[in-house]
Amino acid sequence: MRASSSIIYGRNPVREALSAGASIDRLFVLDKNEEGPLGRIVSLARKKGIRVDFVSRERLDEITQNAAHQGVCAYAAAYSYSSVDDILKRAEEKNEAPFVIMLDGIVDPHNLGAIIRSANCFGAHGVIIPKDNAAGLTESAVKASAGAVSYTPVARVVNLSRTLEELKEKGLWSYCADMCGEDIGKTDLSGPVCLVIGNEGKGVSALLKKKCDFTVKIPLCGNIDSLNASVAAGIFMYEISKKRG
Q1: What is the CATH number of domain 84-244?
Q2: Which of 38, 43, 151, 216 has the maximum number of C-beta atoms within 10 A of its C-beta?
Q3: What does the pLDDT profile of the chain (245 residues) look like in tens digits?
């Protein structure tokens, strides 16, 4: 049963969804239940690399709108994911150099949706997100994209670092968004591009930053030294789009 198009609740429905390989973004389990039927569901989810949160009964009631959740519910993707190859194929079909956005740990679904919307507006061929510890294509993210998910493919991968290496092998230059980088307005952004945007608070992880070819920033001149992740992503994408012509 579903409380909405992206929430699955009840022990059997959740277990069946996990076993069938459904795109589950997050699992919520009644606190202190790591044994028995719920424990087996938790074990299955963890084997698949799905985030598991132990919460109170009140929180489960809130998520499922007081449905008979039996101590467990899950957020399922409200929209289907694509593959990285789908994104690159889209660029090839348009006879354009690939322009890819990679998001390292964006946890706010509204930020994710807004970034997908900007990606579409500025001509990016697709967005790559990690499978774990990040927002997925939930209803909130889809709504925030204002329909952009229908036109801009989103791929979800297990390992961002490995995926970045594969993109570099295919000829893409990688640009890490970081306040210690070079002014993006003065950076050569022509050719195949992968723009890496980091977590709202921590930025791009050290490992992923190290693998990037360049580090770029948006010069700021106010009293606040940072931008919202989706706002910053939009500005970076605009600069890349402008220089791509």
Answers
A1: 3.40.1280.10
A2: 216
A3: 444 447 889 999 899 888 887 788 889 999 977 788 999 999 999 998 888 999 999 999 999 999 999 999 998 877 889 999 999 999 999 999 999 999 999 999 999 999 999 999 999 999 999 988 899 998 889 889 999 998 999 999 999 999 999 999 999 999 999 999 999 999 999 899 999 999 988 999 999 999 999 999 999 988 888 899 999 999 999 999 999 87
- How far is Cα 68 from Cα 57, in angstroms, rounded to an integer? 11
Half-sphere exposure at residue 180, Cβ-oriented, CA atoms within 13 angstroms: 5
Global confidence as pTM: 0.80
Q: What is the largest distance, in Å, between two alpha-carbon atoms of the chain? A: 59
